[in-house]
Design goal:
- This protein has 409 residues and is α+β, with helices and mostly antiparallel strands.
- The chain folds into 2 domains: 4-205, no CATH class; 233-406, no CATH class.
- The protein has helices spanning 9-22, 83-96, 100-111, 131-141, 146-162, 176-180, 224-229, 241-244, 250-263, 320-324, 328-345, 363-366, 392-406, and strands at residues 25-27, 30-32, 34-44, 52-61, 66-71, 166-171, 189-196, 199-205, 270-271, 275-281, 287-296, 311-318, 347-349, 374-380, 383-384.
- The two termini are 41 Å apart.
């Protein structure tokens, strides 16, 4: 029976996380404590496409096993055996490809207690400097010596690099058919946890291939701050953009991605050093180019909206395809659209060769200017792009309304 208090899966997830703070998982009569260190991890599908999904939880138990946990209420249409291959299997492939830097930065918002709508380990202090530090605090909480935490961290990184996981479904009801129809041709361990009224029932099938649970000791254990300084080592893809963003602007990024997904964007893109871009066809049969990526939060922007080494968010709208068209009438349409965006969403041209809101400047007069057609949010030098200010949400709403009107769906 579905519990009323678990009307949404997030409540199920939070109740389960809280349960792990005080109680172990009982597996074949043996107790095993687990440390949840990652929450809502954005991951591509692992097959090379641009489609992404969100892994609910990632954790490590005291034996060093790494758990990938996907929650599904029994009322969810995705509560069936396809979850093993369509979600958990793909997440396992994707996570294996991540570097230590990407894994550590991906855990940061949860461990630093910056995520929203969730619960946090009470034994981890908010000033924690790194993921390995958090593992040491967890080990201390379990009354282990400090080095045990570093050992478990190393084992965790080894397991991720080797692709050795426990792929786990978490639900409020037993899933006999889901468990019965789990894949038999993969090497990863598999588990099904029924969590109901603060009680857990754990089914576990161990790895088909045994993998040693001894850490190599070759991992860097670097702090979040140190990893943030190595920005150039991370490619700006849809799932990795949040790793370097200021905490205050991550919700805006998520809104942008959700908007384009609902608009029908395929998820395909091209990247450069700091952004990814894609084109969307307009009702005028000329595409708009969208740029989404990182911008330096320079000294002119209020320090309270970021922490050192974190980026702000670029969300630029580009009319270059209109401008490059040989038909002047096409560019005139594009210029009118650019002016509308400037007036309603407070976007401006890059380079400052002219003021797009000044009626003196016509499409014909600026046709041969160096401006490439790209526009960004700009009000003042200290209020530009997106860094998490409340007023940015109003401008974002105007951008969405503009795009809803001009993009062909």
């Amino acid at each position: 029976m579905i519990l009323n208090e678990y009307v949404i899966e997030k409540q199920l997830v939070n109740k389960f996380i809280e349960h792990t703070f005080d109680y172990p998982l009982l597996i074949n009569g043996k107790a095993r404590k687990i440390f949840i260190w990652g929450h809502e991890i954005l991951l591509p599908d692992g097959k090379g496409s641009s489609k992404s999904g969100i892994l609910d939880l990632i954790g490590t138990d005291e034996l060093g096993e790494v758990w990938l946990i996907e929650a599904k209420l029994s009322s969810n249409t995705e509560w069936h055996s396809n979850i093993w291959q369509n979600q958990l299997g793909l997440y396992a492939i994707s996570l294996k490809k991540r570097s230590e830097q990407e894994i550590v930065l991906g855990s940061r918002r949860y461990i630093k207690k910056r995520s929203t709508g969730t619960v946090f380990p009470p034994y981890i202090i908010s000033e924690t400097s790194s993921l390995s530090d958090a593992f040491c605090q967890w080990a201390s909480h379990l009354n282990y010596e400090g080095k045990k935490g570093l050992e478990l961290y190393d084992i965790t990184m080894d397991k991720i690099r080797n692709g050795s996981f426990i792929q786990c479904v978490l639900s409020n009801e037993p899933g006999h058919e889901i468990w019965k129809n789990r894949p038999k041709d993969i090497t990863n361990a598999m588990s099904y946890i029924t969590f109901n009224k603060d009680e857990t029932d754990v089914l576990l099938e161990q790895n088909r291939v045994a993998i040693a649970s001894t850490g190599t000791g070759h991992w860097s254990h670097e702090t979040w701050e140190t990893f943030m300084k190595k920005k150039n080592e991370i490619k700006p893809t849809t799932d990795k953009i949040p790793l370097l963003l200021a905490d205050s602007v991550v919700p805006i990024y998520e809104k942008i991605i959700d908007f384009f997904t609902e608009l029908g964007w395929s998820g395909e893109f091209h990247t450069n050093k700091k952004a990814f871009r894609f084109d969307l066809q307009t009702i005028y049969n000329i595409p708009l180019r969208i740029h989404i990526g990182w911008i330096d939060a320079d000294g002119q922007q209020d320090i309270k909206y970021r922490t050192p080494y974190q980026f702000g968010l670029k969300f630029n709208i580009d009319f270059r395809h209109f401008k490059k068209d040989t038909d002047i009438e096409v560019w005139e349409v594009g210029y009118v659209l650019a002016k509308e965006l400037a007036e309603k969403a407070r976007y401006n041209i890059r380079g400052g060769e002219f003021s797009i809101t000044d009626n003196y400047w016509t499409a014909e007069k600026v046709k041969d200017f160096k401006w490439d057609g790209e526009m960004y949010r700009f009000i003042t030098k200290s209020n530009k792009d997106y860094i998490g200010l409340e007023e940015e949400y109003m401008d974002l709403k105007e951008v969405f309304q503009f795009l809803n009107r001009v993009i062909k769906t």
